[in-house]
Amino acid sequence: MCSSPDLKRKPAVTEPDAEIDIKRPRMLTPAPDAAPSSSEAGPSRLTPPSSSPEMTEENDAETDVEAGPTTAPMLGFSIKYQGTVLSVRLAEDETVADLKAILFSMTDVPSESQKLLGMVKGKQPSDETPLGTVPYAPAALRPRPARTQAEGSKTTDTAIDAEQACKLTVQFTLLGTPEAGRFKDQAAGGTLSSDGAETVQDLDYLGLPDSQAPKLEPHKDPKYLAKLEKVIQRFSDFPIINPPRPGKKLLVLDLDYCIADTKRLLDPNSPASLGARPGLHELLKAVYPHYDICVWSQTSWRWLEVKLIELGMLGNPDYQISFVIDRTPMFKIQSKVGTHEVKALEFIWRRWPQAYGPHNTIHIDDLSRNFAMNPRNGLKIKAYRNAPNMDTEFFALRRYLLQLAHPSVQDFTKYEHMGRAWKRFQGPEV
User: What whole-number distance in Å separates Cα of residue 113 and Cα of residue 134?
Assistant: First the structure.
């Protein structure tokens, strides 16, 4: 069992409409005295600013995000957002989607809501456009800072050194509403930016007809595996609440319309507890002796944290949540019916390879397209909408998870979890 860096943090209740502080990246890094063990993923590309941040000409704090090692030329980006200047460095062969993913992790502004004002003239570039091919507006290009010492010697200004390493620096303004500011609009019937946005047909990649099946399955496609590697390099040191326990399996749960009715959660006139799916706490209490529990939601960390507290899932005396993951490490794949994001479980497995893997992880979601990178580990349950009192999905799921936890089950991928197969499964319970 591998040890984990000291990344615990005490959940704090955040008001949904509170102003978001972006003076530092939202993704946390290990404490200086808590070096990762050999089984931990490498350090994140998101680096908190020093205690004495450099000030810009506008006297704004600069938040810095640096890309990891790469052979491609580097590009620098200086982004103005709500009175703060954010600094990002990425390789030419990375895409606009990569830039937006990092900006989301720093500001909570969802990628689809971001407007990169002044970066280009005219139409915004598509998410798949490599950053090295974007036709940047001449006014957005900033000259490299002049060296303060003799040419070839190293300066004492690390910010200048970093910019000198970039082929060019692009400055623009980010416009967009953070996730927290969208809650009221969502409650009033606006578009959900999470799993509730049914803009793409749901897909079961294990049961697609030949006319819709991709030539190469997503979890075997080198293009998507490369995207996964980038995500792991950038965001793998996400915070944990409770470290993995030796010998436990892993239960990954979706939030929106899976463990709770999202619209009921967003209703300010209704207690959050009324939005919980029937049997939620009974399920987690029953399986906790055998499973570590993760909640992975296609929303921002702040939304996820607040709602888990309101649902009574954080600090519950009967079970503990090991960690939560938000939308940040999700990435898009292309199918014949549209583009959609995925939850790649390798993102978790790579961090704790001695604890979790395909053999002992089950992912519960109401959208089977989220299983595209791990089709043999997904179990789709009926979406929980309009808070029906007679819903029994979690009562059936509790029985199945206890059957999977039996010592006779050695590899979850050998079992059929989709359709109604999991409800018909007959096996001993642990």
Answer: 19
Q: How far apart are CA 416 and CA 290, in angstroms?
A: 20
Q: What would the two tokens of residue 298 be?
A: 């296609």
- Band (1; pLDDT cuts 50, 70, 90): very low
273 vs 264: CA distance, rounded Å = 9
pLDDT at position 38 is 34
Residue 372 neighbours by CB under 8 Å, 6+ apart: 203, 205, 218, 219, 333, 335, 340, 342
- Residue 158 CB partners (closer than 8 Å, separation 6+): none
Phi-psi region of 215 (alpha: psi -120 to 50; beta: other; left: phi over 0): alpha
Cα gap 363→350, rounded to integer Å? 16
Query: Environment class of residue 3 by beta-carbon count within 10 Å: exposed (0-12), middle (13-18) or buried (19+)?
Result: middle
Residues 251 and 398: beta-carbon distance below 8 Å: no
> Are 265 and 26 spatial neighbours (Cβ–Cβ below 8 Å)?
no
pLDDT at 258: 94
Helix (H) or strand (E) holding 320: none
Q: How far is it, in rounded angstroms, from Cα 70 to Cα 251?
A: 34
Average pLDDT over residues 68-82: 80
Q: 215-274, pLDDT tens digit by residue? A: 778 889 999 999 999 999 988 888 999 999 999 999 999 998 999 998 888 777 888 888
User: What gap in Å lies between CA 198 and CA 194, rounded to an integer?
Assistant: 9
Hey, which residues does 394 pair with through a beta bridge?
Answer: none
Nearest to 384 by CA among 198, 254, 202, 258: 258
> Phi/psi of residue 60, each to 5°?
-100, 145
Axis crossing angle, helix 222-235 with helix 96-107, rounded to the nearest 10: 30
Distance CA 95, CA 75 (A): 11
Task: Give the tens place of pLDDT for each residue, 96-137.
Answer: 988 998 888 788 888 888 999 999 998 889 988 999 999 999
Q: CB atoms < 10 A from the CB of 409, how many?
A: 17
Cα–Cα distance measured from residue 256 to residue 385, given in angstroms and rounded to the nearest whole number: 9
Domains contained in the chain, CATH given: 62-177 (3.10.20.90), 185-424 (3.40.50.1000)
Phi, psi of 102 (to 5 degrees): -70, -40
Percent of residues in the chain assigned helix, strand, coil, to nearest 5: 25, 20, 55
**Tokens for 247?**
């010998």
**pLDDT top residue among 214 and 105:** 105
